[in-house]
Amino acid sequence: MPLDYSNETAGTTDIAFLKRPALNITGDTQDIILNGGGPGVETIKLLLLAGDKLSSMFGPQYSLVALDPRGVGNSGPDLSCFPKNPAGEALWQASVGERVADSTDDVGLRQLFAIQTATGKWCSKVHRNGPGRYATTHAIAEDILHFTELQAAANGYVNLISRVYDGC
Protein backbone atom coordinates (compact mmCIF):
# COMPACT_ATOMS: atom_id res chain seq x y z
CA MET A 1 0.00 0.00 0.00
CA PRO A 2 1.20 3.55 -0.54
CA LEU A 3 2.70 5.20 2.51
CA ASP A 4 0.81 8.35 1.52
CA TYR A 5 -2.20 8.02 -0.79
CA SER A 6 -1.98 11.67 -1.81
CA ASN A 7 1.76 11.38 -2.62
CA GLU A 8 2.51 7.92 -3.98
CA THR A 9 6.16 8.87 -4.53
CA ALA A 10 6.63 8.58 -0.73
CA GLY A 11 6.96 4.82 -1.13
CA THR A 12 4.98 1.80 -0.05
CA THR A 13 4.51 -0.42 2.97
CA ASP A 14 3.03 -3.83 3.64
CA ILE A 15 -0.35 -4.08 5.33
CA ALA A 16 -1.26 -7.52 6.65
CA PHE A 17 -4.79 -8.80 6.01
CA LEU A 18 -6.30 -12.15 6.96
CA LYS A 19 -9.67 -13.34 5.74
CA ARG A 20 -11.78 -15.98 7.48
CA PRO A 21 -14.29 -17.14 4.86
CA ALA A 22 -18.00 -17.13 5.58
CA LEU A 23 -19.44 -20.44 6.71
CA ASN A 24 -22.51 -20.08 4.48
CA ILE A 25 -21.35 -21.58 1.20
CA THR A 26 -24.80 -21.72 -0.43
CA GLY A 27 -25.80 -18.07 -0.39
CA ASP A 28 -24.41 -14.61 -0.85
CA THR A 29 -21.73 -13.57 1.58
CA GLN A 30 -20.38 -10.21 2.67
CA ASP A 31 -17.16 -9.09 4.33
CA ILE A 32 -16.92 -7.51 7.76
CA ILE A 33 -13.62 -5.67 8.15
CA LEU A 34 -12.24 -5.84 11.68
CA ASN A 35 -9.97 -3.23 13.21
CA GLY A 36 -9.22 -3.88 16.86
CA GLY A 37 -8.60 -0.23 17.61
CA GLY A 38 -5.55 0.80 19.41
CA PRO A 39 -3.06 1.89 19.61
CA GLY A 40 -1.21 -1.32 19.04
CA VAL A 41 -3.94 -3.96 18.71
CA GLU A 42 -2.96 -6.85 16.43
CA THR A 43 -6.31 -7.55 14.79
CA ILE A 44 -5.03 -10.62 12.94
CA LYS A 45 -4.07 -12.20 16.27
CA LEU A 46 -7.52 -11.27 17.58
CA LEU A 47 -9.18 -13.02 14.62
CA LEU A 48 -7.01 -16.11 15.08
CA LEU A 49 -7.85 -16.30 18.78
CA ALA A 50 -11.54 -15.38 18.67
CA GLY A 51 -12.57 -16.21 15.09
CA ASP A 52 -15.07 -18.92 16.06
CA LYS A 53 -16.80 -16.66 18.56
CA LEU A 54 -16.85 -13.70 16.14
CA SER A 55 -18.24 -15.86 13.33
CA SER A 56 -21.02 -17.12 15.58
CA MET A 57 -21.80 -13.55 16.72
CA PHE A 58 -22.02 -12.10 13.21
CA GLY A 59 -23.49 -15.10 11.44
CA PRO A 60 -22.48 -17.60 8.76
CA GLN A 61 -23.12 -15.21 5.86
CA TYR A 62 -20.17 -12.98 6.76
CA SER A 63 -16.48 -13.38 6.01
CA LEU A 64 -14.28 -11.75 8.61
CA VAL A 65 -11.36 -9.69 7.36
CA ALA A 66 -8.74 -8.55 9.87
CA LEU A 67 -5.99 -6.07 9.22
CA ASP A 68 -3.07 -5.21 11.41
CA PRO A 69 -3.02 -1.40 11.33
CA ARG A 70 0.11 0.39 10.21
CA GLY A 71 3.08 -0.18 12.47
CA VAL A 72 1.37 -3.01 14.36
CA GLY A 73 1.95 -6.77 14.21
CA ASN A 74 2.66 -7.85 10.65
CA SER A 75 2.12 -4.43 9.03
CA GLY A 76 4.68 -1.79 8.20
CA PRO A 77 6.22 0.61 8.56
CA ASP A 78 8.49 -0.36 11.45
CA LEU A 79 7.57 1.88 14.34
CA SER A 80 10.04 0.58 16.88
CA CYS A 81 10.93 3.27 19.36
CA PHE A 82 14.45 1.86 19.39
CA PRO A 83 15.40 1.59 15.71
CA LYS A 84 18.69 -0.19 15.11
CA ASN A 85 18.93 -0.90 18.85
CA PRO A 86 17.37 -4.28 19.61
CA ALA A 87 19.16 -4.40 22.97
CA GLY A 88 17.47 -1.13 23.99
CA GLU A 89 14.10 -2.47 22.84
CA ALA A 90 14.59 -5.69 24.83
CA LEU A 91 15.62 -3.75 27.93
CA TRP A 92 12.56 -1.50 27.65
CA GLN A 93 10.25 -4.51 27.17
CA ALA A 94 11.76 -6.28 30.18
CA SER A 95 11.50 -3.25 32.45
CA VAL A 96 8.27 -1.63 31.26
CA GLY A 97 6.68 -3.76 28.57
CA GLU A 98 2.92 -3.95 28.64
CA ARG A 99 2.25 -3.44 32.31
CA VAL A 100 -1.30 -3.68 33.54
CA ALA A 101 -2.31 -0.96 35.95
CA ASP A 102 -3.81 -1.76 39.33
CA SER A 103 -6.60 0.76 39.62
CA THR A 104 -6.54 0.50 43.42
CA ASP A 105 -2.87 1.52 43.70
CA ASP A 106 -2.61 5.29 43.38
CA VAL A 107 1.20 5.32 43.51
CA GLY A 108 1.44 2.52 40.93
CA LEU A 109 -0.97 4.34 38.60
CA ARG A 110 1.07 7.53 38.85
CA GLN A 111 4.30 5.65 38.15
CA LEU A 112 2.81 3.82 35.18
CA PHE A 113 1.38 7.09 33.83
CA ALA A 114 4.81 8.76 34.13
CA ILE A 115 6.54 5.83 32.41
CA GLN A 116 4.02 5.72 29.57
CA THR A 117 4.15 9.52 29.16
CA ALA A 118 7.94 9.43 28.91
CA THR A 119 7.75 6.51 26.47
CA GLY A 120 5.23 8.39 24.31
CA LYS A 121 7.41 11.49 24.22
CA TRP A 122 10.47 9.41 23.34
CA CYS A 123 8.69 7.54 20.54
CA SER A 124 7.17 10.76 19.18
CA LYS A 125 10.63 12.30 19.02
CA VAL A 126 12.06 9.21 17.28
CA HIS A 127 9.29 9.22 14.64
CA ARG A 128 8.59 12.94 14.28
CA ASN A 129 10.04 13.09 10.78
CA GLY A 130 10.12 9.37 10.12
CA PRO A 131 7.68 6.61 9.27
CA GLY A 132 5.35 7.42 12.17
CA ARG A 133 3.81 10.22 10.15
CA TYR A 134 2.44 7.53 7.82
CA ALA A 135 0.75 5.53 10.60
CA THR A 136 -2.21 7.74 11.35
CA THR A 137 -5.91 7.04 11.73
CA HIS A 138 -6.43 8.72 8.37
CA ALA A 139 -3.88 6.43 6.67
CA ILE A 140 -5.45 3.31 8.20
CA ALA A 141 -8.88 4.43 7.00
CA GLU A 142 -7.37 4.87 3.53
CA ASP A 143 -5.98 1.30 3.70
CA ILE A 144 -9.45 -0.04 4.54
CA LEU A 145 -10.97 1.98 1.69
CA HIS A 146 -8.27 0.72 -0.70
CA PHE A 147 -8.98 -2.89 0.31
CA THR A 148 -12.71 -2.29 -0.18
CA GLU A 149 -12.10 -0.86 -3.65
CA LEU A 150 -9.93 -3.83 -4.62
CA GLN A 151 -12.56 -6.29 -3.36
CA ALA A 152 -15.32 -4.45 -5.22
CA ALA A 153 -13.29 -4.55 -8.44
CA ALA A 154 -12.53 -8.26 -7.94
CA ASN A 155 -16.27 -8.87 -7.58
CA GLY A 156 -17.06 -6.99 -10.78
CA TYR A 157 -18.18 -3.73 -9.21
CA VAL A 158 -16.28 -0.84 -10.72
CA ASN A 159 -16.55 2.86 -10.08
CA LEU A 160 -18.74 2.23 -7.05
CA ILE A 161 -16.43 4.01 -4.70
CA SER A 162 -14.58 7.19 -5.56
CA ARG A 163 -11.71 8.64 -3.61
CA VAL A 164 -12.24 12.06 -2.15
CA TYR A 165 -9.34 13.94 -0.62
CA ASP A 166 -10.29 16.79 1.65
CA GLY A 167 -6.79 17.78 2.64
CA CYS A 168 -6.74 15.74 5.87
Could you please describe the fold and organization of this structure?
The protein is 39% helix and 9% strand. Mean pLDDT is 82; it is low at 164-168. With 168 residues, it is mainly alpha-helical. It contains 4 helices and 3 strands; from the N terminus they run E-E-H-E-H-H-H. It has one domain (8-154).
Question: Please, what is the oligomeric state?
Answer: single chain
Distance between the termini: 18 Å
Large-scale geometry: flat
Helix content: 25-40%
Regions with little confidence, pLDDT below 50 for 5+ residues: 164-168
Topology:
Blueprint: E1 17-20, E2 30-34, H1 43-58, E3 62-67, H2 86-95, H3 106-127, H4 137-154
Parallel strand pairs: 2-3
Antiparallel strand pairs: 1-3
Task: Report a brief summary of the structure.
This protein has 168 residues and is mostly helical. It has helices at 43-58, 86-95, 106-127, 137-154, and strands spanning 17-20, 30-34, 62-67. The protein has one domain.
Q: Which tags fit this structure?
A:
168 residues, mainly alpha, 39% helix
